[in-house]
Amino acid sequence: xxxxxxxxxxxxxxxxxxxxxxxxxxxxPEITIERPxxxxxxxxxxNLPLKLARLVKNNPMSIAGELxxxxxxxxxxxxxxxTPPGFINFTxxxxxxxxxxxxxxxxxxxxxxxxxxxxxxxxxxxxxxxxTGPIHVGHGRGAILGSTLANVxxxxxxxxxxxxxxxxxxxxxxxxxxxxxxxxLQSLGEKAEVPENGYHGSYMVDLAKxxxxxxxxxxxxxxxxxxxxxxxxxxxxxxKDKIREDLAQLRVEYDVWFxxxxxxxxxxxxxxxxxxxxxxxxxxxxxxxxxxxxxLGEDKDNVVVRSNSAPTYFATDIAYHYNKFxxxxxxxxxxxxxxxxxxxxxxxxxxxxxxxxxxERLQIIIHQLVTLKRGGELVRVSKRTGDLITLEEVMDEVxxxxxxxxxxxxxATSQMDFDLELAKKQSQDNPVYYVQYAHARIASIMRLADExxxxxxxxxxxxxxxxxxxxxxxxxxxxxxxxxxxxxTSEPHHLAYYAQDLATVFHAFYKDCRVVTxxxxxxxxxxxxxxxxxxxxxxxxxxxxxxxxxxx
Length: 552
What we know:
By secondary structure, the chain is α/β, with parallel strands linked by helices. Among the domains are: 2-92, Arginyl tRNA synthetase N-terminal domain (Gyrase A, domain 2, 2-Layer Sandwich), CATH 3.30.1360; 97-112 and 428-543, Isoleucyl-tRNA Synthetase, Domain 1; 171-249, no CATH class. It has 20 helices and 14 strands. The strands form four sheets. The chain has a five-stranded parallel sheet with strand order 6-5-4-10-11, sandwiched between helices. A three-stranded antiparallel sheet has the order 1-3-2. The longest helix has 26 residues, at 224-249. The two termini are 35 Å apart.
């Protein structure tokens, strides 16, 4: 990684300055390397002189000048310049840049991967909605965030496990079962009322009809409690199958499907409650059992067992995270939750502390709401059912690639508008089309080269010297840094930005630099660059879970 190389060079320069008495012997602050916003300022910049100036009480420009003079020679660096108010700006050598095209082609689909994660075991848990109904549009955002982040973490050397947590226990399951029983009886022509707080969506009517078609009036003949139990389990199973089917269509796959009920069946719930009680974090008051969050800095305590002896969702979440950290021993756990779970974050961090887990090992990403639009008009309900719009409907209308890109195109903390009409446009206005068209255009160039039987394997990349060529190479080389950055920040939306930027730079190169010409040597060199671009763009699309089409 070039950033690491620059950090090493700066460290050597500081050590030499201190050894020569040009800098006092102070502890070296963290060295950061950034890309200047203005390309005229070079390829990279460091504010190390400004940090050192605060420590040694010296002029930052003077320090910058001393360090520049002491930097060891490096094959990658054309120049290092001290810049006000105290930066060191680095510019890369053109011939070094052009040689990287061969490196990209050699690494192929592994280009950009790193060993940053050092094999650490990371769990990414996402979507995890109750199996009481179909997946809606808002859930799709969490699905794309989780699956893309998992892809990037894997590429950066982490051992990743993707998990879906089925909340198949508790009060909501009971309400679902009773709602389904009422719809089942209605489907058989009997009068029955769906509970007021039950599930009234039209999908429940369809589900009941499906069960009647499959089982007939079998459950009407049973005792009501037994009928509700058996019918409910069948309904939950069918909802689970539909959730799996929709997520698979979205290209979201899981390593583990975890049942909440198993926490009770396998004893984790009892174990963790005993552990917390022994640690003094459980108290009985007001007829209920409480987790004493206030002893860990929280504003209030939280109920874990209600007065009717029923555990709360918070209690099962405690048992679930006990299972994750203390039994399955993940080094880090990333939970991706919807906006309605924001208030749940601090108490889960408190639980981690109570269990002896460093809170930073638990990362909770809250994603904001999705607003569907059709052009400028707000879309509130499904045309087909009158209910909330399902993820399946959106995938059917705009396609999976558009779904994945649009859901990823904003940071998780931002509310997002999803324009269905824009997502279907086959024009440069649609970022999905724009990015994928770049890949298809590259594939077209490579087909032309193949038709002309051009063997570019011995192409001389040192011929790549023009500004459009070098700008494209620079953009290709930023993918490894991007992958590492996303692995640290857990912000996969930067991939969507990068894909658009790369497509823009390639289209500009294509406009200015004809690839296949009568100049055989230049043709071969540019074909290598085009193929390297195809490699990097395809890698970016695949990290986002999208296809890289060869024709459009």
